């Protein structure tokens, strides 16, 4: 049997609502814009480069954990979800992380979710050639506001897969909401999730302020994206990348700081920034294993297992029940 992938785009934010959201953030007394504005075409490529930097340990550490503990993880998943589960991949991108688990999990259906279904087309067509009998679906959805899939895609206990520590880009309250919705979606199955852990500040800050300046370019590129979206006149050379760990909130904060007093204009709006004033662009929360396990329990999961690397820098958790 040779299947073909199914594609569904759910309520994509339009240009006007994205522009209104960015404008509100820039005009707030403490200017802030959502990290989703990092990911235009260039920003997505810069993020891929970040994952290969020597200082950015999360991607390779997570991959090493999954490589080393793959059989144990798979056994735990199959005992929670039953054989041939449906696998739902949140923020699937090129689907490569999930595909590495296919030989171990043999899912009967793979549902890739990402903000735009267009990102998923090529990856799912390629996957279908390699796995002709597997049911494949791509869903375009911004699940940060609500995680709900069209009826029929998940029919029975599922594995919700959320690697990459993107949960760290949510505040603890928003993370709890997302985990609750993921548990509902799993329908008695399980969630396999990657989480970045608290570690010495020097390693954390280097990971978000690398020597090559790729993360700085990723952060500054957000201004190019805003210039296109809003018609604004941000001059990139007037801004500086800042990445600092806030130990109280247990998060890396990224900001763009004005090098000198600068005025930015766009149709209908103007914002004056004092020298040193910042635009807050991202939080990346770092969890302890105990605090993240407690969060998963608060989300309703009864059992939590976790695997880590020898330094205890990154966690892969399986939550079920
Ligand atoms: C996507 N997310 C998990 C990354 C992180 O580490 O918080 C985004 C990132 N920002 C700067 N570098 C990477």
Would you list the SSEs in sequence order as H and E? EHHHEHEHEEHEHHEEEEEHEE
CATH superfamily of the domain at 82-198 and 288-320: Vaccinia Virus protein VP39
Low-confidence stretches are none
The CATH architecture assignment of the domain at 82-198 and 288-320 turns out to be: 3-Layer(aba) Sandwich
Span between N and C termini?
A: 34 Å
Present as ligands are: N,N-dimethyl-L-histidine
What is the strand content? 15-25%
Overall average residue pLDDT: 97
CATH-defined topology of the domain at 82-198 and 288-320:
Rossmann fold
Keywords: Methyltransferase, Transferase
InterPro entries: EgtD, EgtD_Methyltrsf_superfamily, MeTrfase_dom, MeTrfase_EgtD-like, SAM-dependent_MTases_sf
GO biological process, one term: methylation
Protein name: Dimethylhistidine N-methyltransferase
Structure explained in plain terms:
The protein has helices at residues 15-27, 41-50, 57-81, 96-105, 118-130, 172-186, 201-207, 214-230, 289-298, and strands at residues 6-9, 86-90, 109-114, 135-140, 158-162, 190-196, 239-246, 251-258, 262-266, 269-273, 278-285, 303-308, 314-320. It is globular, with a radius of gyration of 20 Å. 37% of the residues lie in helices and 25% in strands. An 8-stranded mixed β-sheet has the order 1-4-3-2-5-6-13-12, with helices on both faces. A hairpin with a 5-residue loop joins β12 and β13. It starts with 5 loop residues before the first strand and ends with a strand. α3 (57-81) runs parallel beside α4. It has a domain at 82-198 and 288-320: Rossmann fold. It binds N,N-dimethyl-L-histidine. The site of N,N-dimethyl-L-histidine has 11 residues, from β11. GO terms for molecular function: methyltransferase activity. Residues 19-319 form the Histidine-specific methyltransferase SAM-dependent domain. InterPro entries: EgtD (IPR035094), EgtD_Methyltrsf_superfamily (IPR051128), MeTrfase_dom (IPR019257), MeTrfase_EgtD-like (IPR017804), SAM-dependent_MTases_sf (IPR029063).
């Amino acid at each position: 049997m040779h299947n073909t992938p199914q594609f569904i785009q759910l309520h994509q934010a339009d240009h006007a609502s994205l522009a209104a959201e960015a404008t509100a953030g820039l005009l707030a007394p403490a200017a802030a814009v959502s990290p989703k504005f990092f990911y235009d075409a260039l920003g997505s490529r810069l993020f891929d480069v970040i994952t290969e930097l020597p200082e950015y340990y999360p991607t390779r550490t997570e991959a090493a954990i999954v490589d080393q503990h793959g059989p144990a993880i798979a056994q735990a998943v199959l005992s929670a979800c039953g054989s041939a589960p449906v696998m739902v991949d949140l923020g699937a991108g090129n689907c490569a992380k999930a595909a590495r688990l296919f030989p171990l999990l043999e899912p009967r259906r793979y549902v890739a979710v990402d903000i735009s279904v267009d990102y998923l087309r090529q990856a799912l067509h390629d996957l279908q050639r390699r796995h002709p009998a597997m049911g494949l679906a791509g869903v375009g959805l911004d699940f940060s506001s609500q995680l709900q899939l069209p009826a029929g895609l998940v029919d029975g206990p599922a594995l919700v897969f959320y690697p990459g520590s993107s949960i760290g880009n949510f505040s603890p309250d928003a993370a709890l909401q997302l985990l609750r919705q993921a548990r509902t979606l799993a329908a008695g199955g399980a969630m396999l999730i990657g989480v970045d852990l608290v570690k010495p500040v020097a390693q954390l800050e280097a990971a978000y302020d690398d020597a090559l300046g790729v993360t700085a370019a990723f952060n500054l590129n957000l201004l190019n994206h805003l210039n296109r979206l809003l018609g604004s006149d941000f001059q990139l050379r007037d801004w500086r990348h800042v990445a600092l760990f806030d130990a109280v909130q247990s998060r890396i904060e990224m900001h763009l700081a004005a090098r000198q007093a600068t005025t930015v204009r766009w149709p209908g709006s103007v914002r004056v920034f004092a020298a040193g004033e910042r635009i807050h662009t991202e939080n990346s929360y770092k969890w302890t294993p105990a605090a993240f396990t407690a969060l998963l329990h608060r989300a309703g999961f009864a059992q939590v297992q976790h695997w880590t690397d020898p330094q205890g820098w990154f966690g892969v958790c399986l939550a079920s029940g």
